[in-house]
Amino acid sequence: MLKSEELRRSWRPPPEDLALSSNDVHVWRASLDQLALRFQRLAQTLSADEQLRAERFYFEQDRRRFVVSRGLLRTILGCYLGIEPSRLQFCYGSRDKPALVETSGGGTLRFNLSHSQGLALYAVTRNREIGVDLERIRPISEAE
Q1: Total structural domains within the chain
Q2: pLDDT value at position 133?
Q3: Is 144 part of any domain?
Q4: Does 29 reside within a domain?
């Protein structure tokens, strides 16, 4: 098992230019536990329906993680598309899977996200569907 410092070093920082060719897949890792100022900035990028969805969470930690997760998604996609994160529009497919509407870059840019505990993964590509999954490994004493 990698120690947290080794894990941090194994991920490269993002390039200055987020060019994404049709054969590329970019995977982003992010902490969902952000400081108040970063949280507020990300919350301002959410749409009205995302804000309503966030308000339905019972626990504050879950609410904050949802806001950060969606705000980071908007920030990442906005960088690829050169669009202000708050201007992106999503549509939803089966199981509420988000996709960009055509006018927001949905014609070519595809993405998927997964989160577990306080960590999120985002995968971004062009012209093809993509999936990413993240699960926390935890011991289960009754498994034996």
Answers
A1: 1
A2: 86
A3: no
A4: yes
